[in-house]
Amino acid sequence: MSSNDSTIGSALDRDTVQSASKLLIAAIAIVGVLAVVTLLPGIDRLVPFAPVTFAAVATAVVALAVAGILLYAAPKFALLTRLALGGRGVDAETDAPPSRIAENAGGMAYWLVVFGAVLVAYRGLAGAAIPLLNDAAWAYDAVFLFVALVPVVFLVARLTVTVDPLAEAVADRVAGDGVDDADDAGEAREAAATDDRDDA
């Protein structure tokens, strides 16, 4: 890797970390603002001509904002995970286990963040949506169940394809050292036998 590539890589790492951190801080700040808003007088009153409170509406808006931030940040967290594990994408020449592990871990991070966004939206919208649905409240749960199954399916798929490369990496780490030690011991025995023959 040239010094130019190294500079670009470190800049990408810093920019990615800064961008992901900014999004995470923004999400936390929005949640903090919601906590303050829920303390306002009269926030627990019903919205006119609707069976929901102002607090439920505010929570729904904040939940949508946080879910949107999480969805926008998901690729950045996936990239950070890949970089943290030493993978810079799939190697074009060799598909080595570490790069496959990093790639799959990045995919898992992506789908975990998406799953988190779905859960935030589900919890946040419940207070405003369920009173409006009345007897059809089961539809709310059913819709979010199907939406949440999408990231779960992709997460399970990524976990499944990570088993083999991870097992290879563990075997290389554990058995590889043992094979090297055995080779060293064998070479030492051969050298000793050669010395014995030379002495004889």
UniProtKB/TrEMBL annotation:
Q: What residue intervals traverse the membrane?
A: 23-43, 49-73, 109-132, 138-157
Q: Where is the composition biased (Basic and acidic residues)?
A: 186-200
> Which keywords, in A-to-Z order, does the entry hold?
Membrane, Transmembrane, Transmembrane helix
Q: Which domain of life is it from?
A: Archaea
In this chain, the stretch annotated as Disordered covers: 177-200
UniProt entry tagged with the keyword Transmembrane helix: yes
Q: What's the protein called, per UniProt?
A: Fatty acid desaturase
Record lineage: Archaea, Methanobacteriati, Methanobacteriota, Stenosarchaea group, Halobacteria
